[in-house]
Design a protein that fits this description.
Elements lengths: L1 H34 L6 H12 L4 E4 L6 H11 L4 E5 L6 H5 E7 L5 E7 L6 E5 L6 H13 L1 E4 L2 E4 L5 E6 L12 H4 L4 E4 L5 H11 L13 H13 L4 H13 L7 H6 E3 L3 H17 L7 H12 L4 E2 L1 H5 L4 H13 L1
Parallel strand pairs: 1-8, 1-9, 2-5, 5-8
Antiparallel strand pairs: 3-4, 6-7, 10-11
Helix pairs in contact: 1-8, 2-11, 9-11, 9-12, 11-12, 12-14
Length: about 325
């Protein structure tokens, strides 16, 4: 029996390597196609794609006008997903997202209710300026993200698979925003900060987007293939060294776990979902970078997008002008030794 198992393992390993190599090629083609339309912003494109490849949702944070919407619609095209967009506003109601029951009357005058699906029934949902909507409407979307189904008038409706939400949020200093509650932020696999473009990229944006012909992306894979890649990522082996690095990094970000700088500056730290997110996205990042196994570098590169929305600073640390990013950078530096 023992013999049988070891041969089986070797076969499985070979099969995983073969499918990982096919996934590497697909991901390289996806990157190339996105780059035809989105200039610069490599890190933003990478982290957003990693969230989707890992099967999760991403929160894109940045001022308006940085092509966040364009990035999402481009990803929809390139990944072959059916995509919808909702512009969040203060008067948006949960039914505007989920859908609602309408009354139908047939020719005999009999009345019945029919459910009309809302925009949440798409494979890639762009939730624009999510922090402008009321908490009730935000939580309708966030519950759908968590449970992959919705309930209207006691009826359950399953959301399509795959189902990904890419939400954009304005920096919180802007007026008329409702910050997302901590527990809801945790539902985003990654928070991706979208900064102003580099000079060269901004020059290319000016030249290429104001002419008569704009570059258009084409589809590289489809939803079925995306689901295969997502399943493969979950099968990729992660070495003990990398697992230990994930645990020690996440735990070092929690107050009361023996890290003096964290105890001083962090009010509350990341929960277990942070570790799960690192386990998934590190494998996706390895493939994205053309490798078959995740390394310590993947963990440290993903520390900020995975941890920053899952922890908060103490009042004293904020008063000193520190940011969560500074704290994470310090923890990564300690971990690298």
């Amino acid at each position: 029996m023992g013999m049988m198992n070891s041969t089986q393992t070797v076969l499985d390993e070979k099969a995983i390597i073969a499918s990982a190599e096919k996934a590497l090629a697909d991901i390289a083609a996806i990157r190339e196609e996105v780059a035809k339309v989105i200039f610069g912003q490599e890190r933003v494109v990478e982290n957003t794609l990693l969230a989707v490849l890992s099967g999760g949702h991403a929160l894109l944070v940045g001022v308006p006008g940085l092509a966040k919407t364009k990035l999402v619609s481009t990803l929809g095209t390139v990944l072959g997903l059916d995509s919808n967009r909702i512009q969040f506003t203060p008067d948006l109601m949960p039914s505007d997202i989920l859908g609602s029951e309408v009354m139908d009357t047939d020719e005999t005058g009999r009345r019945s209710f029919r459910f009309v699906k809302g925009p949440v029934f798409g494979q890639l949902l762009m939730a624009d300026e999510i922090n402008r909507a009321s908490p009730r409407t935000q939580s309708a979307l966030l519950q759908a993200m968590q449970e992959y189904h919705i309930t209207v008038a006691g009826q359950r409706y399953d959301l399509p698979a795959p189902f990904h939400v890419l939400a954009t949020q304005n920096p919180l200093e802007q007026e008329g925003t409702y910050p997302l509650p901590e527990a809801q932020l945790d539902r985003f696999l990654l928070q991706v900060d979208v900064l102003y473009p580099e000079l060269a990229a901004e020059r290319q944006i000016l030249l290429d987007t104001t002419g008569s012909a704009e570059a258009k992306a084409r589809s590289v894979i489809d939803a079925t293939r995306l689901k295969d890649i997502q399943a493969l990522i979950r099968q990729m082996p992660v070495s003990d060294k990398v697992v230990d690095a994930i645990l020690s990094l996440v735990r070092s970000a929690r107050p009361g776990h023996g890290n003096a700088s964290t105890d001083k500056h962090v009010a509350w730290g990341p929960g277990p979902r942070a570790g799960q997110s690192l386990m998934l996205t590190a494998r996706a990042r390895a493939l994205y970078e053309g490798r078959l196994a995740p390394s310590l570098d993947d963990i440290y590169a993903l520390a900020e997008p995975v941890l920053q929305h899952r922890m908060a600073l103490t009042f004293a640390a904020r008063a000193e002008g520190m940011s969560v990013r500074d704290v994470i950078a310090g923890l990564v530096k300690q971990a690298r030794g």
